[in-house]
Amino acid sequence: MTQPGGWSRGGPSPVSMSPSNSPLHINELNLPKTCEIDFSDQDDLLHFRLLICPDEGFYKGGKFVFSFKVGQGYPHDPPKVKCETMVYHPNIDLEGNVCLNILREDWKPVLTINSIIYGLQYLFLVSTAGVQAPVGIRGGYQEVFGGD
């Protein structure tokens, strides 16, 4: 169902522009109820935004926007995903870079956009207590919070 502002809420995506021709398998998207997707430019399905609104856990009630840029190498290369919302999270640095293994070394061509969406949603649901931030992200937290 398309929401005001172009966002589509959970369930199969209602994108009307020949999703069967898209390498993204848009017609197979099955969004969690806490996610909405926005294809602002119906002629460019390779650039879109995802809104995640966790309904439980520490980030409950938050709204987090991610931008997706799918390159010509997809599905052999993962899409570029950035968090556009400033958030203090052990897997998201201050520039919005996301630390999710399936976006880097664990990417496989059999993975889909749906896999990434569920992976991003999972980041906001798991308990991060006692989790140490990846080395590349620690500097930003030290700068903001001090300490190690």
Automatic annotation (TrEMBL):
Its EC number is 2.3.2.34. This is NEDD8-conjugating enzyme UBC12. The active site is at C99. Accepts the ubiquitin-like protein NEDD8 from the UBA3-NAE1 E1 complex and catalyzes its covalent attachment to other proteins. The specific interaction with the E3 ubiquitin ligase RBX1, but not RBX2, suggests that the RBX1-UBE2M complex neddylates specific target proteins, such as CUL1, CUL2, CUL3 and CUL4. Involved in cell proliferation. Keywords: ATP-binding, Nucleotide-binding, Transferase, Ubl conjugation pathway. SMART domains: UBCc. PANTHER family: UBIQUITIN-CONJUGATING ENZYME E2. Belongs to the ubiquitin-conjugating enzyme family. GO terms for molecular function: ATP binding; NEDD8 conjugating enzyme activity. Pathway: Protein modification; protein neddylation. Residues 15-148 form the UBC core domain. Residues 12-21 have a biased composition (Low complexity). It comes from Accipiter nisus. It catalyses: [E1 NEDD8-activating enzyme]-S-[NEDD8 protein]-yl-L-cysteine + [E2 NEDD8-conjugating enzyme]-L-cysteine = [E1 NEDD8-activating enzyme]-L-cysteine + [E2 NEDD8-conjugating enzyme]-S-[NEDD8-protein]-yl-L-cysteine. The lineage of its organism: Eukaryota, Metazoa, Chordata, Craniata, Vertebrata. The keyword Disulfide bond does not apply. SUPFAM superfamilies: UBC-like. Residues 1-21 are annotated as: Disordered.
